[in-house]
Amino acid sequence: MSAAPKQIPPRAGFEWEKLAFDLYPTSGFAKYVWTAETGEWGPVEWVKEPYLNLHVGNVGLNYGASVFEGLKAFRHADGHIRIFRPKDNAARLNHSADAVSMPALPEELFLEGVHLAVARNGDLVPPHAPNAVNGSLYIRPLMFASGANLILAPPSEFTFIVYVTPTGSLYGAAGTKAPAIDAFVIEKFDRAAPRGNGSAKLAGNYAPTFKHAAAAKKAGYPLTMHLDSATRTYVDEFSTSNFLAIKKQADASQRKTLVVPESESILKSVTTKAIIQIAKDFGWAVERRRVLFQEVKDGLFEEVAACGTAAALTPVRSITYHDSPETTKKVSIGDGENAGPGFLSILTQLTGIQSGVQEDKHDWVWPKAGVDGSV
Ligand code: COI
């Protein structure tokens, strides 16, 4: 990378104000292949069409050896593009890869692939706006078993790709004015078993939630939530994101307490890690522990939010659950309508750092000088 990275301006004529959480055409994606023959990841290849040519017996599609990541790139006021905490995603990808017997990917290759995919699609990073209200470039690293095998065993070839798409917010508005949404606890299905793979970002952890999430959405709940599968008494997470809460205070002068559920079945969110640090920087107390769903029912939380790369920090204004097989009960959070001030202040700080209008004192954005459009 050169000392003075080449800037890539946003694409003229693109309707940034209409940006959805969707896939848009891009200039291509980065691809690496690992083979048993070499025992290594090969050099990067740039693929222009959004397609892959795969053997029908590939283990990724047949047996679910497929893991992914989600991270974002933002345009700062100096016109340069920077990516939020990619090294954390590199580490988590390897945790997920190990869960389904795939080879580890060196951090430098992860960063190279992410950088290349962003640099060659830099015109799709939305124009700078404080707190990223114009959206961001969503980056999707994906690793899967591309080799073929009929037996249940890792094949001799794996593929790692990085593709991107410009995105607005997953729920409601990007930036600081997130509207609060309604959540529904899924009763008929559990996301992850104890000693299972809930902490890994396996492709297979997501598709089984689709039909339940679609039914909930139809009933007016954009967000679905999972309890622990062993006892159904603890909060695990939402189908798309982590669960976070702020404890109800006796009076407004008290120090705020962020509550973060701890469970081996929860995805280790990079955004949650950042929010814990921001809460500490604000002087809040942080409790990382098992969270009883009864605490939600008893109204012990003044705010709840969904937290992840795509969700950012989405306030939750109610949680509805089955109190019997036939009936449901709704717990209102805060005023039951609007986002509370605690999570909005954290969201403002998070998106401020991501968009470069707040100091990056924990060294989260990368590369410091900006993405280099000359690669
Ligand atoms: C992300 O937040 O990056 C995810 O992978 C969640 C998915 C709903 C897009």
UniProtKB/TrEMBL annotation:
Cofactor(s) of this protein: pyridoxal 5'-phosphate
Residue numbers of N6-(pyridoxal phosphate)lysine PTMs: K201
Keywords of this entry: Aminotransferase, Pyridoxal phosphate, Transferase
GO biological processes: branched-chain amino acid metabolic process
A GO molecular function held by the record: branched-chain-amino-acid transaminase activity
InterPro entries per the UniProt record, alphabetical: Aminotrans_IV (IPR001544), Aminotransferase-like (IPR036038), B_amino_transII (IPR005786), BCAT-like_C (IPR043132), BCAT-like_N (IPR043131)
PANTHER family named among the record's database cross-references: AMINO ACID AMINOTRANSFERASE, BRANCHED-CHAIN-AMINO-ACID AMINOTRANSFERASE 3, CHLOROPLASTIC-RELATED
Family the entry assigns: Belongs to the class-IV pyridoxal-phosphate-dependent aminotransferase family.
Name of the protein in question: Aminotransferase
